[in-house]
Amino acid sequence: MDFNVSSAELLKGLMDVIKAIPSKPGGYPILENFLFVLKDDSLSVTASDRELTLCTTIPVSSMAEEGEIAVPAKHFTDILKELPDQPVRIKTTSEISFELIWNSGSSTLPYFPAEDYPQIEMAGNDAIEVKFPSHTLLEGINKTIYATADDEMRPAMNGIYFDIEPGQVTFVASDSHKLICYTSAEVETELKASFILHKKHASVLKSILDSGDESVSVNFDAKTAVFHSASTIMVSHLITAKYPKYRDVIPQNNSNILKIDRQLMLNTTRRVAVCSSKSTNFIKLHMSEGQIEITAQDLGFSLSAYEKVLCDYNGEDLSIGFKSPFLIEILANINCDTIVMKFSDSRRAAIIVPSEEESDNEKVCCILMPIMVS
Q1: Up-side HSE of residue 100: CA atoms within 13 Å toward CB?
Q2: Do β-strands 33-39 and 42-48 pair in parallel, antiparallel, or remain unpaired?
């Protein structure tokens, strides 16, 4: 292997994929390395932890000899980070080492045979292809990832569920306390399909997406999803558990309707929640005609707070309790000016959605389970 490349372009490519390098490789120390494949005037760089794989292509300035080697990720990137942008040369000098050469110096590093790097399992011949605009994927992940769980007993809850139907996709996440659904019609498919993307992989995916209209192709089967974005490919092992029937838990015919400014509700909840019990984070909402009263107390430390806010409320007088962090998360992640909260009674889940005037711009539905009010 012998080629020249811009140090800045090389470092950018490496940082795009280094997220897949495992902190603890376990029985696979080879995974602490990048796989370099030099061919046809371009360098393919792969990083993997066997569950998640990232691959990017970097153009090279010139190439004297093709080759494939596994390069120590940490040492190599640490050196490149300290170099100003300049042409660098990379060439193998023996069967076990290579040189990184820059204007005023060089470094010799070991490499390992490319044959030792594990084969990357792609989606099979029966894979389904769906195309999303990049901004749709990014928005769907951002709107739902905070609601995913850390549940060893129910692995399906640890990811984002992609519920794909002809002409639309719904991103779903739930930790059993809250359920978030974000729906978009910006998807190219006439098929009905679904998969669960682990939240760690979803977080990596959103870091390599841009917010434009660039098309992202997703090929997936029962076990693997492959995301093609610009010059980067992400291969993810999917969560294969069955996702619950989330539509069945969305309440119907909640007749008590609260309409209120989202930012006002968020700020009030944050203020009052300061005095809630640290063990329960419990706050109580009491709705009556024209107003809502939010209260919290921590009897152990003689703390309490309440605040009354004018609002548009249509329904019976109602008191309902929530965990304040869950309500705050939902209010902070809806991009609208006015929200509508729909209640049945104090024991059943509340629905939180954008107001009717803004629902076309923010197609999100949030379900929040209450805590019983004593």
Answers
A1: 20
A2: antiparallel
